[in-house]
Design a protein that fits this description.
Elements lengths: L7 E2 L3 H24 L6 H6 L6 H28 L6 H23 L6 H6 L2 H24 L1 H8 L3 H50 L2 H10 L18 H17 L2 H7 L5 H33 L16 H9 L6 H33 L8 H24 L7 H25 L5 H24 L4 H4 L17 E2 L30 H19 L20 H4 L9 H10 L9 H11 L1
Antiparallel strand pairs: 1-2
């Protein structure tokens, strides 16, 4: 009986068919884009889609790449265990979209960059650029490791072969990243986004049928305390409150979307600045939709298991196996539908891994190879891009092969983004808003922020916050009725030595190390800004020569000023740049046209 515990069925042949069709569909898009773009085989086409993409597919790709399978698996279990507080990230998505679209995108378009870290060299120096790029590569490889690990719960519950899934992930990503470039990645993301949403809808629809309607699910969630989302306690040590999600969460997501190459590379592929901004705002709606469906899937799960928690009952090993367990429990009578759900989670993995591979190729070529040696023929550059795609795809498979479980993949992934992304975001803001900042202050501030943030983050991993800070909601096993079924399986435990509670807990663990993971980015950003400014002032930042105004945020970059800018002659070049980059094709960001038009006006 559904919701009473015990083993659940494994994959049927039709589930394998649906799952395989997803893999083949993703690979076929890469092959199609490779054939379609064979006459335009150059680096800009491979890395940036020829800078001719439009808002809607880019927006869906932006949503798919970082919501990923972690959202499919981690967010529903978050709602199941902690309630709707995670839904407050919807406010963070709105703030993130506005900041990224109005502050960062115009600068990247104005500079005509391919790598987001090229800005750091123009504003500071080459050492700072290489440091930022290296931090991004480490962050990306760590998260690719986590994103591929999210297949572990699916494999353990459904009976899929783990190594088969890992090799298939790497092989498919290598095929369409190598042959189709960014266009293949973006259009594949569109397909994968649709599959992810369909997976959530299937779970909610079937759950509503099992429970007797959506109103029953909502009532059960209310009785179980799952609908309490707004906690206005200012305590920074509590895992999720209104303040730490809206403030800390906004900064965390800004660091993910505004300076992470995987995302930057997508929106600068748009043909105009207007299209790029629009893509970010459409992406905001996509994030709202995805997280809302994921949270309601978690409430559906609670309604079904309110009297028999599979985790407490020993049916699964970790909370990340909850949703796969639910899928096999309620959808197994419908052959192919469980395969659709696993395909949804798998699609998120493909999306994230493929975008990471493409972005890693871009920063490797732009930040490490081209500055040292530029005399490559177009054919050599093309083969180099393809070869690096194969290399990074192989690295991803290798990392996944040695992976072991790490607890909640959702919090682990967001923690890593915060620990590395926060200090990097602080460095960019330091350069964009403060002309006093110099290369010494920028690099010193970045290192200071990174060291202190890693100290807090690693301490939190070694000494996890106690239950009075994380506030898990109560669950029970009073309704469980275990029965054995020879044709079914119970998931094996999936635990990690890194998350075992140590025998000794130092006093600092209940204060400094208990800081909410959502604040990691904010903490790193503030430390980098403050220490960077102080070091710059001490080392002569106030005496720097006049710098290129293109490197700083302009009033005309913002929506509220773009149509009513009454700048005078001293701002003439700013007006010209704004008029050009807002709506003209972005083949080379029209840098030469801007200069010519300005010269003519003079």
């Amino acid at each position: 009986m559904v919701g009473t515990g015990g083993p659940v069925p494994t994959f049927s042949p039709w589930d394998y068919v649906v799952f395989a069709a997803t893999i083949l569909g993703a690979a076929s898009i890469g092959l199609f884009q490779a054939i379609r773009g064979r006459k335009e085989n150059n680096s800009a086409e491979f890395l940036l889609g020829g800078r001719q993409m439009t808002a809607v597919p880019v927006a869906m790709s932006l949503t798919a790449s970082f919501m990923s399978g972690i959202t499919v698996i981690g967010t529903p279990s978050e709602a199941y265990r902690f309630g709707l507080a995670f839904w407050l990230f919807g406010f963070s998505y709105a703030i993130m979209s506005a900041i990224t679209a109005e502050l960062f995108v115009p600068i990247f378009y104005r500079l005509g960059i391919t790598s987001a870290y090229e800005y750091l060299e123009r504003r500071f120096n080459r050492i700072t650029r290489l440091t930022g790029t290296s931090m991004y590569i480490v962050q990306t490889l760590q998260n690719v490791y986590l994103f591929i690990m999210e297949n572990f719960p699916n494999c353990l519950v459904t009976g899929l072969d783990l190594w088969g899934v890992l090799v298939a992930t790497g092989a498919v990503c290598i095929i369409y990243c190598t042959l189709g470039g960014l266009k293949a990645v973006i259009w594949t993301d569109v397909l994968q986004m649709v599959i992810m949403l369909a997976g959530f809808v299937a779970v909610i629809a079937r759950g509503a049928v099992v429970q007797g309607g959506l109103s029953t699910i909502w009532d059960d969630a209310a009785k179980g305390g799952r609908l309490v989302a707004f906690d206005f306690d200012p305590d920074p040590l509590k895992r999720h409150t209104f303040w730490n999600i809206v403030i800390g969460g906004s900064i965390m997501w800004v660091s993910i979307y505004s300076i992470n190459q995987s995302q930057v590379q997508r929106y600068i592929s748009c043909k105009t600045l207007g299209q790029a901004k629009l893509a970010l705002y459409i992406n905001m709606v996509g994030l709202w939709t995805t997280v809302s469906l994921a949270m309601f899937s978690g409430l559906t799960m609670y309604s079904i298991y309110k009297n028999c928690d599979p985790l407490s009952n020993g049916d699964i090993g970790t909370s990340d196996q909850l949703l796969p367990y639910l899928v096999m429990d309620i959808l197994s009578p419908y052959p192919g539908i469980p395969g659709l759900f696993v395909a949804a989670a798998y699609s998120g993995t493909l999306s994230t891994v493929s975008s990471s591979i493409n972005a890693l190729v871009a920063v490797t070529v732009e930040d490490f190879i081209f500055p040292v040696y530029k005399d490559f023929t177009q054919k050599q550059v093309t083969w180099m891009n393809m070869g690096l795609s194969v290399f990074f795809g192989g690295v991803c498979i290798g990392m996944a092969g040695v992976a072991s479980a790490m607890g909640s993949v959702l919090q682990a992934a967001l923690s890593i983004f915060g620990m590395i992304g926060g200090p990097l975001l602080g460095l960019y803001l330091l350069g964009m808003f403060f002309r006093t900042a110099n290369s010494t202050g920028g690099l010193g501030g970045l290192i200071t922020g990174l060291v202190l943030t890693l100290w807090v983050g690693i301490g939190a991993q070694l000494y996890p916050p106690t239950a009075d800070k994380t506030l898990p909601l109560p669950l029970t096993t009073v309704g469980c009725n275990k029965t054995l079924d020879l044709n079914s399986t119970t998931a094996a435990p999936w635990t990690s030595p890194a998350n075992l509670t140590p025998d000794y807990r130092p006093p600092i663990a209940d204060s400094w190390y208990s800081l909410s993971y959502v604040y990691f980015s904010l903490f790193g950003m503030l430390i980098t800004l403050v220490s960077g400014l102080l070091l710059s002032i001490i080392t002569g930042g106030c005496k720097q020569a006049k710098m290129n105004s293109d490197l700083f945020v302009r009033r005309s970059d913002l929506i509220c000023f773009s149509g009513c800018n009454n700048s005078k002659a001293s701002d003439e070049i700013e007006k010209v740049a704004t008029d050009v980059h807002m709506g003209v094709d972005n083949k080379a960001f029209m840098e030469m046209d801007v200069q010519k038009e300005y010269a003519t006006k003079l």
